[in-house]
Specification:
- The protein is built from seven helices and no strands.
- By secondary structure, the protein is mainly α.
- It has one domain.
- The two termini are about 25 Å apart.
- It holds the Pfam family VanZ.
- It comes from Defluviitalea raffinosedens.
């Protein structure tokens, strides 16, 4: 029971991080991407901030796309871990976690309408959904395997306080 609470706290914290990142004005968000490009030694931060540099703008766009996929994939995995204790079946939990993540992605885009220099894009919701699908598939595969191994299944049932016998 304690682990379930910890997982929910981690899920809510991840959602808060997404909210905080989405709350950053457009110019600061661009600086974040430029900083990441600089730290990974791809291009310097100054180059990344040059709006006339087509390569830099392309790299920034790529970083932003990947950020959506990775961040929302992680959120879906956390939702999955949170929901499994209530649903108890791998595939059903996957569906619920994917739907919850996409809904949060939609609310994230609506929130960005009210942030200076930011906007809402349906493509970002699609990226969020793709990231969520990847995270969901990873968790479904892991939990389907867990459901097939009796000793691990027993352990997971104990963690989630389930009384589910899976054959």
């Amino acid at each position: 029971m304690r682990l379930r609470k910890i997982i929910w706290i981690l899920t809510i914290l991840w959602m808060a991080v997404i909210f905080l990142l989405s709350s950053r004005p457009g110019d600061l968000s661009r600086k974040d991407s430029a900083w990441l490009l600089d730290k990974t030694k791809i291009i310097s931060q100054e180059e990344a901030m040059d709006t006339d540099n087509i390569e830099a703008m392309s790299l920034q766009m790529w970083i932003r796309k990947m950020a959506h996929v990775i961040i929302f994939g992680g959120l879906c995995m956390l939702f999955y871990a949170s929901f499994y204790g209530y649903v108890g079946k791998a595939i059903k939990t996957g569906i619920w976690s994917w739907v919850a993540t996409v809904i949060y992605g939609i609310t994230d885009e609506i929130h960005q309408l009210f942030v200076p220099g930011r906007g809402s894009q349906i493509q970002d919701v699609i990226r969020d959904g793709k990231g969520a699908l990847i995270g969901c598939l990873i968790m479904v595969i892991i939990f389907l395997l867990i459901e097939k191994v009796p000793s691990i299944n027993k352990f997971i049932n104990r963690i989630y306080n389930l009384n589910v016998e899976i054959s």
